[in-house]
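Long-time lurker, first post.

We've been arguing in lab meeting about whether flavin-adenine dinucleotide would sit comfortably in this protein at all. Half the group thinks yes, half thinks no, and nobody has a model to point at. So I'm putting the question to the forum: if I give you the sequence and the SMILES, can you give me back a predicted structure of the complex? Inputs are below. Any interpretation is welcome too.
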Amino acid sequence: MTSIAIIGAGPAGLLAADFLADVKGARITVFDVGKQPMERHCPVSDKFHYCVKCKPACNIMCGIGGAGMYSSGILNMHPKIGGDLIELAGSEDRALDLVLAVEEFFMRFDGGIKLYNPDPAQARELKRLSSAAGIDFIPIRQRLMGSDHTPRIIDQVYHDQMKRGVEFKTNQLVKIINQDKSLETEQGERFGPFDFLIAAPGRFGMIWLSGQAERLGIGSTYESIDIGARVEVKAEIMEEICNIQRDPKFHIFTKTHDDQVRTFCTNHEGFVVLEAYHDGTIGVNGVSFVDKKSQNTNFALLNRINLTAPLEDSTKFGKAIADVATLLGGGKPIVQRLRDLRRGARSTLKRLKKSNVVPTISYDAITPGDISLAYPHRIMMNLVEGLEQLDKVIPGVASDSTLLYAPEVKYSAKRIYTNAQLETIIPGFFVAGDGAGLTRGIVAAGVTGLIAARAIKDRIDP
Ligand SMILES: Cc1cc2nc3c(=O)[nH]c(=O)nc-3n(C[C@H](O)[C@H](O)[C@H](O)COP(=O)(O)OP(=O)(O)OC[C@H]3O[C@@H](n4cnc5c(N)ncnc54)[C@H](O)[C@@H]3O)c2cc1C
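Top reply:
Settle the argument with this. Predicted structure of the protein with flavin-adenine dinucleotide, as tokens:
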């Protein structure tokens, strides 16, 4: 028998386990600090808040299904979204083949996952309109599982893999990875050594993984960070665009700084939700459901920031900004009307209530305030200019009533150095997914799980 350990049961870990479960002679053990899918209840998240504080591990970020389980479950079938899959896979054809394999994986468990395939003529026209405004529109085939259906799909994946012999060790925080690929858990148990190891601990485990890599002499480098705001508008403003593409991707170069801002994670008729981290920092995110709809649409408008010496640690930078925003918001996200932001005034509850956009998050969960007090001027200018450019393609998106919520920070992991098979300098030790700094999305994470798993299969059964 060949023993294989997988750390993390997110999309990266589950896709790897699924592929390896069919390899003769492979014995697979998946470790996850969280719980089984149907045990992952979070009293806070049930009220549309994302709680990242639950002990011992957060039910939103941790457990079988990973951070993808309570997400909107938008599957972006594009080799440049969620990571550079062409670079990771080695060629465009191979990347597309892997993207298709991830799509087929999810479809095996629910053939009805809704497809959003942009009509070519409409996509072409939108691309033309966007180009005229200096914006790049990226047409993508997408599927929406929906935050309400994703847990059921993941539960089916879990039971299917158990039936096929995969062993799941839930509530097990792996604390130490040893050179011989044995693992030590927080509970003091030792497992292995294993013949192969795939570490796929997601954003929850990214700092831990880079620490383990450093201890084991595996190099890594800092990745860029995305800092921005969650934008909320009336759903009718986005209706036409979201009918062409469910989660439209616009890349904008701003007038003053020539920086890239981009739209991300659009939730048509969705809800703004709260993210609360262990250290007290607050953030915002968005979700959408298949069966439950709001009157609004939200999306993230993000600035990509690359840092060089003397501060390369982009996480530290993002955290410092999020801390100031949390401080100013009194422990709650700041919400501001675009009209107030443009006039240099803070929003108040009274001003907020003049907006025709009624927040989808309850008033007691947010603080009307001034985001420009917390964010660097350059980021603020990029956000306002980005929205104004986007208004030429989506009229009304930069109206006075538009709401902005902050902080929204997409922390990046340090990218762990690997070869093309995603194997580190320790033979048989592979990494995959968001936690290794390779990806930022469900499909992309799944693709990296498959790359590692295929390489392992080739070693077991050349
Ligand atoms: C609110 C929200 C909405 C999102 N919406 C979308 C979307 O619509 N579409 C999209 O493509 N992406 C979305 N994403 C991002 C997506 O969920 C992630 O990119 C994806 O889940 C990453 O997969 P992964 O397997 O790398 O890691 P994860 O899914 O994060 O899984 C990692 C797993 O590892 C476990 N783990 C970590 N450290 C340890 C350890 N030391 N020991 C044991 N276990 C450990 C964790 O418990 C976790 O279960 C969203 C994310 C969030 C938070």
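For your lab meeting: DSSP finds twelve helices and 24 strands in the chain. Residues 225-410 form one domain. Whichever side wins, do check it experimentally.
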